[in-house]
Amino acid sequence: MYGRIDDVASGVQMSKNFFGFEEKEEESTEEFKRQKTNVFDYVKSINLKDKYLGDKLEDYSAFIVNKAMSGYVDCIMYAKEINLYSNLSSRMNYDFYYHSIKKSKRYAEWYKNNDETIQNIVDYFNISRTKATEVLDILTEEDLKKIKKSLTYGITEK
Predict the structure, then answer these.
(1) Model confidence over 103-144: pLDDT tens digits?
(2) Where in the sequence is the domain holding 17, given as residue range(s)?
(3) What residues contact 106, with CB distance under 8 A and at least 6 apart?
(4) How many domains is the chain partitioned into structurally?
(5) Residue 33, CA distances (Å) to 26, 36, 63, 73, 97 in order
C-alpha cells in the first residue's frame, strides 16, 4: 500500500502517503553546497596564476582586492589605474589584474589602523579623530602610556 519509487536519474524520490497520493521528496542538497571563496583567494589567484577564478565571482570585492594589490610595490600603479574606473564590473576588474600582473609570489603586510591609540587621544583631549591623528605624530611613547593609564578605570593587575 505504502511505497517508495526512486527515480535515480532525476534525483527525486516519489512516495505514496496514507491516502495513496504521490508526494515528491527531494534529496538533501548538503552535497551540492557551494564552496565559499574567500576574497584573498582571488588575490592569490591573481598573484600565482594557479587557477582562473573569473567564472565564479559571487564573493569578489573589488575594493578589498584593490586595497590588497596597492600593498605591493610592483602593483601599485595597476591599482591606481583600476581605481580610475570604479564603475567596472567585478569580472572586468578581476580580468584586468589577472592578465596584466606578472606571476610572482608577493608578500605585504595588511595596513592596520592604530585605532585604540587614536581613540585614547580623542577621549583624553576631547578632540576630533582628524586632530587626534595630527597629535599622534607629536606625542612620545611615554605620553601615550600616561594617556592610556589615565583612561584606565578600575583595578588593573600588575
Answers:
(1) 999 887 776 666 788 888 999 999 998 898 888 888 888 998
(2) 1-28
(3) 47, 72, 74, 75
(4) 3
(5) 15, 9, 26, 38, 28
